[in-house]
Design brief:
The protein is α+β, with helices and mostly antiparallel strands and about 400 residues long. The protein contains eleven helices and twelve strands. Bound molecules: flavin-adenine dinucleotide.
């Protein structure tokens, strides 16, 4: 493992960082050739798809080892994409691997795993609170050998250019428990009735291609019965299962962002002089920012590692509080560390000369997607308080 981590670190330093300025200055579709080249380099260096089993072209790393890789790749906005472990594809790959039928895996997982196609995930809707994902308007109605979908989704990341969307739609509205009402479908994006209405501007940027966030409509969109993933009514449970390891991936990526921010902060503080012979690093406040950032980042890293160990030992349900806790703890550490690094860089920090400004804008979403902070805190408080209530019966 140490050797593999060193190879990932060398890949980031030697292959990705040199093209990072291009990626920060241009929409990704404009630098498709360069991105293809670094993806090919990842394949040739044996770094492709660390999360997938060998028969799917991956390195079969367990979650704990993949998390360490994720922190290294997180040091640049290009890292995860270069190795084909970018959200939302990584979640869709894991979903298909575990719950896809053999035909679904051949048709969708195979090209996704090899990086030939991309995908997106459509759960959130404009008319319903995404924080309550069991409350959906989109429906799928059985008609012979097909399901007919109608509804609207938004914030489907990477929708532009995706070949298929994994969609949650209500199939069983009469189910007593709200979490048994929705099912999950694979909808190819060339299906009649599927439309990408627009790319939603996020923090001042209308993303494109992989960096887009789409609003989608489904109008009498007909898919075969075989498009359902898992059982009817299992959509919500599968979505939660998909998000559990996904939160670990994100958290370690954010820790990678903290590592890079500290690195940039230190380098700049040492070279930027406030007066001849007086680098910024002499200022006590800057030294404290460096020290606080390191302590908070290491605390976050250990917290995620501990959560992964519990997850691997006890399963997702028994670890749900820890997963929630890292999901609100790590983004807040990241925000503080990024803020300090930006401040150290002065006006330069707000330019695209470093990834700090890009991360500052786009990683704010970390406190909202995959469950806003408040939802996770509410769940943790509820489970904690339950321990103090008298036992029923
Ligand atoms: C950049 C980005 C990418 C995304 N990618 C995807 C994607 O690929 N696929 C997809 O399906 N969705 C995606 N989403 C949507 C995301 O999952 C939702 O935005 C999120 O679940 C919150 O839902 P909402 O926006 O409807 O906010 P709402 O549910 O309307 O909540 C609004 C606010 O209410 C507060 N709140 C909510 N619940 C509570 C509570 N219990 N107690 C106190 N306060 C509370 C929170 O502060 C929350 O931010 C993405 C979002 C963003 C910003």
């Amino acid at each position: 493992m140490p050797d593999l981590l060193a190879r990932y670190a060398a890949f980031v330093d030697d292959v990705l960082l040199p093209i990072e300025p291009l990626a920060l200055a241009h929409p990704w579709p404009a630098i498709a050739t360069q991105i293809d080249t670094v993806r090919q380099a990842a394949r040739e260096r044996g770094l492709w798809a660390p999360h997938l089993p060998a028969e799917w072209g991956g390195l079969a790393l367990p979650l704990g080892e993949f998390a360490e890789v994720s922190a290294i790749l997180g040091r640049t906005p290009l890292g995860h994409y270069a190795c084909n472990v970018q959200a939302p594809d990584v979640g869709n790959m894991e979903l298909l691997l575990t719950h896809g039928s053999p035909e679904q895996r051949e048709q969708y997982l195979r090209p996704l795993a090899s990086g030939v196609i991309r995908s997106c995930f459509g759960m959130t809707e404009p008319g319903r609170a995404g924080s309550n994902p069991v409350w959906l308007d989109t429906t799928a109605i059985r008609d012979g050998d097909s399901w007919v979908l109608n509804g609207r989704k938004w914030f489907a990341s990477s929708a532009e250019g995706a070949s298929f969307c994994v969609v949650l739609a209500v199939t069983t509205p009469e189910a007593k428990k709200p979490h048994h009402r929705a099912s999950m479908f694979i909808v190819p994006t060339d299906t009649p009735g599927y439309a990408l209405v627009r790319n939603i501007p996020v923090m001042g940027h209308v993303g494109a291609g992989y960096a887009s966030h789409g609003e989608l409509t489904f109008t009498n969109c007909r898919v075969p019965a075989s498009a359902m993933i898992g059982a009817e009514g299992a959509g919500f449970v599968l979505a939660q299962e998909r998000l559990g390891p996904g939160r670990v991936h994100h958290c370690m990526r954010w820790i990678g962002i903290c590592d890079r921010a500290i690195d940039l902060m230190c380098r700049y503080a040492l070279t930027r002089e406030m007066a001849p012979g007086e680098p910024l690093a002499f200022k006590q406040v800057v030294r404290h920012w460096i020290a606080e950032s390191r302590a908070e980042t290491e605390a976050a890293r250990l917290f995620v590692r501990d959560t992964v160990q519990k997850l691997e030992r006890n399963g997702q349900r028994a670890t749900r509080d820890e997963i929630s806790m890292i999901k609100y703890f790590v983004p807040q550490v990241m925000q503080r560390v990024l803020d300090r690094a930006l401040q150290v860089h002065g006006g330069y920090g707000l330019t695209d000369a470093t990834p700090l400004a890009n991360w500052w804008a786009h990683e704010r979403a970390a406190r909202i997607y995959d469950g806003p902070d408040e939802v996770h805190k509410d769940a943790v408080a509820k489970h904690t308080l339950e321990r103090y209530l008298p036992k029923r019966g």
